Amino acid sequence: METLVCEGLSKSYGSKLALNRIDLRLEEGRIVGLLGPNGSGKTTLIKLASRLLVPSEGRITICGEEPSEITKALISYLPDRNFLPDWMNSEELLQMYGDFFGDFDEVKALEMLNNLNIDMKMPIKKMSKGTRDKVQLILTMSRHAKLYLLDEPIAGVDPASRDYILNTIINNYDEEATVLISTHLISDVESVLDEAIFLKEGEIFLHKNSDELREETGKSIDEYFREVFRC
Amino acid sequence: MPRVFSENVPIYLQLIEMLKVSIVTGEYKADDKLPPVRELALRYGVNPNTVQRAYSELEREGIVQSERTSGRYINIDAQKINELKKGISEEYIRELFERLRQIGLSGKEIKNLVNKWEENK
Fold it and tell me: Do A211 and B48 touch (CB under 8 A)?
C-alpha cells in the first residue's frame, strides 16, 4: 500500500517556489531518506504531509486520504525543533501522548525511557540536548502510525546518541508503516535507508533504492550527493 | 552499532558475502538457525529490508532454508561448503588481479609476486 502520494504538488511562499510539481509515491515498509541541501524543500514537504501547510497546487494524500483529522491520526511527526512544552516531565508527557493519540503505546515508551535511565520527574528544559532529542524520538516512535515523518532527527547529536536514535527507528517501525527521514547528514543514516530521495531546488532530482544507487554509481549515497550538489 | 560495511557497494551483497564467509569458516554450521531479520539489522545498523534481501538471495542459492514458523536455517553439506569456498576465493583473486593490473602488472608478474610472497612470509 502507498502511504504517501504526491501528484503535481507545488508550494510557493509569495513569489518563492519551494516545491515545484512534485510527483512521489512511498510504499509501506520502507525507510526513506529525504535528502537535500538547506532550502531544497525538505521541511516544506514534511509540513505539507502533516497539514501544517496547504499546497499551492497539486495533491498530497496519506494512505489515500487528503490531509485531515483522519490523516493526523495516521502520521507521527517529529519536527526539527523542540516541540514539547518544556516545563513538562517524562511522566506528564506519557500522559499527554496517551490522551492525544489513540495509537500511543505507553508501555513501550516507558520501557525505552527506563532503558535510558531517564529521570521521569525531570522537566524537558533541564535535560541535555541529546536526552531531549531521545525523549522526543521515543514518544514519536512509540505511536503505531502508518507514516513517520522525522525532520532532522540526528542533527547535532553525538555519535553514540545517533546510533541509539537509528537503532530506535529500526527497532520500532513496523512493516506496514513508512519512515521518512529528512537529513543532510547522509553518511550517518545511509546504511538504514531503503530508498533515497534527492530534493534539488524544490524538485525531485532522484528517487531510488539505496543499493541500486550504489550499484549503478559505484559510490556511496553520501559521495553521490556531494557530486550532485557540489557548490 | 559497528560500521563494517563500505557504503559504496550494495550492502545486501556485503551481507551475503559476510554470511558465506561465516559458513565457510564454520561459524555457522549445517542446521544452525540464522538470527531474525531485525536482530541482524540492529546488530549491523542496516535496514531490515536489506537483511531480508540478503536472506532471500541465500535462499535462492539454496544455502539457507526457510521454515514457515520457526525461522531460517543453514542448509549446507561438505560439497556445498567447498563450492562456496571456491566462489569466495575466485572473487578475491579476481579483485587481486584487477587491482594489480591497474597499477600495470602483467598476469605473469602477479603470479611471481604471489609465489614470492608465500615463500618469504
Answer: no
- B26 and B61 together in one domain: yes
To the nearest whole Å, the CA of A58 is away from the closest chain B CA by 31
Q: Judge: B53–A211 Cβ closer than 8 Å, yes or no.
A: yes
ipTM: 0.75
pLDDT of B70? 83
Residues of chain A positioned with their CB less than 8 A from the CB of B6: 220
For every residue of B26-95, DSSP letters joined together read: TSS-TTPBPPPHHHHHHHHT--HHHHHHHHHHHHHTTSEEEETTTEEEE---HHHHHHHHHHHHHHHHHH
Q: How many CB atoms lie within 10 A of CB B14?
A: 20
Q: Is the pLDDT of residue B3 over 80?
A: no
Is residue B93 one of the residues assigned to a domain?
yes
* CA A131/CA A223 separation, integer angstroms: 31
Structural domains of chain A, count:
1
Q: Are A69 and A38 in contact (CB under 8 A)?
A: no
C-beta separation of A219 from B8 below 8 A: yes
Residue B64 sits in the same domain as residue B19? yes
Residues of B in contact with A214 (CB under 8 A): 7-11
B99 pLDDT band, cuts 50/70/90, is: very high
Write out pLDDT tens, residues B31-49. 899 999 999 999 888 999 9
CATH (domain of B30)? 1.10.10.10
In this predicted structure, what is the pLDDT of residue B104? Answer: 93
Q: Are A146 and A174 in contact (CB under 8 A)?
A: no
Q: Which of B3, B11, B42 sits opposite A170 (nearest CB)?
A: B42
Q: Which domain holds residue A59?
A: 2-228
Mean pLDDT of B40-60: 92
Domain count for chain B, please give it.
2
Which residues make Cβ contacts (< 8 Å) with residue B41, sequence separation at least 6?
A170, B47, B48, B50, B51
Domain that holds residue B106: 79-120
- Distance of residue B79 Cα from the nearest chain A Cα, in angstroms: 31
pLDDT band at residue A206 using 50, 70 and 90 as cut-offs:
very high
